[in-house]
Amino acid sequence: MKINPYQPDQSGMAYSVGTTLDRFIKLKQSDFPFASGELSQLLRDIALAAKIVNRETNRAGLANIGGAFGQTNVQGEEQQKLDVIANIRFMRALSKGGEVCAIVSEEEDAVVDLQNNSGKYVVAIDPLDGSSNIDVNISIGTIFSIYRRKTPIGSPIQQEDIMQPGSEQVAAGYVLYGSSTMLVYTTGFGVNGFTYETSLGEFFLSHPQIQAPTSGTIYSINEGLEKDWQDGIKSYVDQCKENRFAARYIGSLVADFHRNLLKGGIYLYPATKKNPTGKLRLLYEANALAFIAEQAGAKASDGKRRILDIVPESLHQRTPLLIGSAELVDEAMHHIQLAKEQATI
Ligand SMILES: O=P(O)(O)OC[C@H]1O[C@](O)(COP(=O)(O)O)[C@@H](O)[C@@H]1O
Ligand SMILES: [Mg+2]
Ligand SMILES: [Mg+2]
């Protein structure tokens, strides 16, 4: 991807590769005429927690960081120590920052009401994504969604503050702890990626205005579950193989998504017999990545509709997820539709 160091964005604001995240956040605040700086501060708080978690992930091989924590979370999944550490670090940064009134986390059964009357924002977070890869030194991540509360500031948190469709997000992003650590986010004005310079302790703009290729030749799916895939997925994957697509599956949603966002490709986690509503969680995995995808010209669907149009019904609800280059997602949805029509004949 050819990077134009002085590429202006929609607001005509030019910013150069190498701009620090902090400076970028300040520059971009002008996108919001009535900005009061709270969202900017919240993004900084998330970046700070990401730096701390980055340090911990680098040490994941050491006894006191790696391995199971010995408890299961509300999904019935065994928590890894790093799941718990990341959850604590983000909770602390979000509650200390003062901008947030409530948090939804993969590692918390219920909504965490911060009793912060002045907090304007609700955050949904997957503190550590790709937990099965922690101990084997493969890329992992953090995923976050930010909403403005619906009820008046100072009033008690209500269901309507939490159960908002993804289309209501004011910002979303992910951190990828990989060969390098990156923070990629959107506030609805395009997608920008920052690379962490450990020795300076700073995130620097490295991927301005990310645009996903409209098509690609990479597909990412856990083929071990092929026998359980919903109809249409098998025929779509067969077509990918027919077209000699490359199969790439890391098993960390953030890492698979990031690769396909930059190179062109599609990630699929369909409904299966084991997970009839899919495996991935709507509020703190699918919504954030769907917002990023759409802002980068890509698409995200549950096989029937746009992920961002789904109105949540429960905190940890799951959804099938087809996400990636627009033409590939359209093609996969076409196969699902065809299979449905054939099933009714
Ligand atoms: O092992 P499977 O069934 O292929 O699932 C892998 C998927 O599950 C996840 O690990 C779920 O996320 P968590 O690790 O945050 O629970 C995704 O990152 C990944 O894409
Ligand atoms: Mg996850
Ligand atoms: Mg997780």
TrEMBL record:
Alphabetical UniProt keywords: Carbohydrate metabolism, Cytoplasm, Hydrolase, Magnesium, Metal-binding
Cofactor(s) listed in the protein's UniProt record: Mg(2+)
Pathway named in the protein's UniProt entry: Carbohydrate biosynthesis
Cofactor note: Binds 2 magnesium ions per subunit.
Protein residues bound to Mg(2+) 2: 126, 129, 285
Residues that, per the record, bind Mg(2+) 1: 106, 126, 128
Group of enzyme by EC: hydrolase
Catalytic activity of the protein: beta-D-fructose 1,6-bisphosphate + H2O = beta-D-fructose 6-phosphate + phosphate
Domain spans labelled Fructose-1-6-bisphosphatase class 1 C-terminal: 213-334
Binding of substrate, residues: 129-132, 222, 249, 267-269, 279
Cellular compartment(s): Cytoplasm
EC number(s) stated in the UniProt entry for this protein: 3.1.3.11
The keyword Hydrolase is assigned to this record: yes
Residues annotated as domain Fructose-1-6-bisphosphatase class I N-terminal: 20-208
One of the protein's GO biological processes: gluconeogenesis
GO cellular component, one term: cytosol
GO MF terms held by the record: fructose 1,6-bisphosphate 1-phosphatase activity; magnesium ion binding
DNA damage among keywords: no
One matching Pfam family: FBPase_C
Assembly description: Homotetramer.
HAMAP family: FBPase_class1
Similarity remark: Belongs to the FBPase class 1 family.
Record-given protein name: Fructose-1,6-bisphosphatase class 1
Gene field: fbp
